[in-house]
Amino acid sequence: MEDCWHYADFLNHRSWRCGWISFDCCYYLPETKRVYCGITSFDADIFWAFDRKSGEFMECGFGPVRNPYDAKFHRSLLQWKTDGCLYAAIALLHDIDRYWEAPGGAIVRHNPLTGETVKLAIPLPHHYIQSIYLAQETGIIYGITFTPEQMFSFDIRSSESRDLGPLGSGFEMGQGENIEIDGEGCASSGVWVDPCLAVDSRA
C-alpha cells in the first residue's frame, strides 16, 4: 500500500475496487424476511439485501442509478412507515480534491414491494451524507454531511431541501452522527468537538 493511497489508485486496482467491502448499516423488514444492507465499496456497488428464505444475497436495483463516487450508505438506512419504503443517503470515500467533480450524496428511496430504487435529490451539491434521521410524523429527513460538515433537511413529500447550517467549527471535526427529535420538535445532534466535551446543535 505504500505510495498508493490516492483515490484513483483504489479505482484502478480491481482487487481493492471490488474486494474491499464492509457493512455500514442494516435494516430488517419482517414482511419481506430480508436484511437490507448498506455496503462500503469503491466500485459504488453499495446496496444489497440478504434473503433469509433463500439464504442468499440479492441486489437491490442500485446499479442503474449509481455514480462512481457513490461509496456507501453510512448510518442511513431507514423505513418510512407511511409508504413502507426504505430511505438511505450516500456517503463518500474520496478526498477533498475531488469536491467539484463529485456530484454529492443523494437521498435514495427503495420500494421493497417492487424492487425499484431511485435517487430523489442531492440536498447539498458536492456534500456527502454521514447519517440521517427520518421523522415519521412529518416525513422529513434530517441529515449531516461530511465534508464539509453541514446539517440539512429534506421533505419527502415536497422534495424540498434546506441547508440548516454548519456543525463543524472549521478547526475540529464535529462528526455528529446520531440525530434525534426533541420535545420541542427540533432536530438535535450531539456533536463531538473535543474528546471530553459534547455540545448540542439544533435546527
Helix content: under 10%
Q: What kind of sheet is the major sheet? A: 4 strands, antiparallel
Contiguous low-pLDDT stretches (5 residues minimum) are 192-203
| β-strand amount | 35-45%
CATH class: Mainly Beta
Number of strands: 15
Q: Give the overall average pLDDT.
A: 86
Structure description:
By secondary structure, the chain is mostly beta strands. Strand 13 and strand 14 form a beta hairpin. It is globular. The C terminus is likely disordered.
Q: What's this entry about, in short?
A:
By secondary structure, this protein is mainly beta. The protein contains two helices and 15 strands.
Task: Looking at this protein, list some descriptive labels.
single chain; 203 residues; mainly beta; Neuraminidase; 4-stranded antiparallel β-sheet; 15 strands; globular; disordered C terminus
Topology overview:
Layout: H1 7-12, H2 14-19, E1 21-29, E2 34-41, E3 47-51, E4 56-59, E5 72-79, E6 86-91, E7 107-110, E8 117-121, E9 129-135, E10 140-145, E11 150-155, E12 161-166, E13 179-181, E14 187-194, E15 197-202
Antiparallel strand pairs: 1-2, 2-3, 3-4, 5-6, 6-7, 7-8, 9-10, 10-11, 11-12, 13-14, 14-15
